[in-house]
Amino acid sequence: MADLTPRRPWRIVHSEVSRGWGGQEHRILAELTGFQKRGSKVWLLAPHDAHVRARAEAAGISTAPLHDAKWRYPFEVLRLACWLRRIRPDVLNTHSSRDGWLVGMAGRLARVPLIVRTRHVDVDYPNPRISRHAFSTFADLVLTTSDRITTHLRQTFQLPEARVVTVPTGIDVSRFTPDGESADLGPAPVVGMLSVLRSWKGHALFLEAARLLVRDGFACRFVIVGEGPGHAGILKMRSEFGLEDKVDLFGHREDVPEVLRGMDLLIIPSTAHEGVPQVGLQALACEVPIIGSDVGGIPQIIRPNETGRLFPSGNAAALAAAIREAFAQADETRRMALAGRRLVVENHSLEGMLDTIEGIYRQRLG
Questions:
Q1: Strand-pair category, 265-268 with 290-293
Q2: Which of 107, 111, 177, 359 has the most CB atoms around it within 10 Å of its CB?
Q3: pLDDT digits (tens, 9 = 90+) for 175-219
Q4: Which of 12, 14, 17, 11 is nearest to 27 (CA)?
């Protein structure tokens, strides 16, 4: 039955110090624009040169500066506390380590009713006694993007079960569909990756699997879509493996649905830190067959023999074998792709995510 409870126009502030543009920033912008469309007043605290700030401003979202230089911390905490008192938010949501401390402290001084710390990646904490304060003293609630991150935080910091809640990122299932134009990524079949170029995303493993397949005469095109600090290393490895005529790099693309529909198989070979990857949900929604490593929250959406294939993290030979199998068992691969679309529509839509978060706000704030 539909939830007929009238929606309250919340006053919500998000903060982010990252200058990059990846899944975490996508999630922040999705929450901001989603709640703004639902009638809430939203703000973003971010550095002047942050990509997410520019995109938020383009979407008509109010922004305010966030200065994260360490020498400014005491002054910035006081300045932000004054700003928060002035705009009187109901919810303050921090996303990265530095703004978790900086803005969290300011939120406490300003007596914001609900301070949320969202954790998007699974990392270790060398000094848990200190790090615990970012998830308890300066936060009332922790939201995570996967059950694995939730379990890790609860165990590491001895947090009560109700204090850490999993809310995977939702995607726009009306935009990510199997129907529509496809990007021209080269001759089929196309096996690709789409992510920020970071070391733990597994591009080296992807290239190693490509080398094994090319060596054995497997006919396909390999593509890497995205930009990031790992670009030079990927080019070097591609050259060392002699794959210049087999692997194409397309850089950053805004036409993500079209790019995904242009692939015959998407690979998520992450080696660490992964929550529930948005690109995985997007690919499933587009009915693109998918193979992922057994890392982090990936198995939550890539369920073996149900929605896709998994391989042991770090094992290039196993990834190469899974790629061969995906094409050899075409009917089974198609069946799993169709099931993937159903999984996303039923459990991982953008509106469903916003409904879940709004339910948490109601429960915590009344």
A1: parallel
A2: 107
A3: 999 999 999 999 989 999 999 999 989 999 999 999 999 999 999
A4: 14
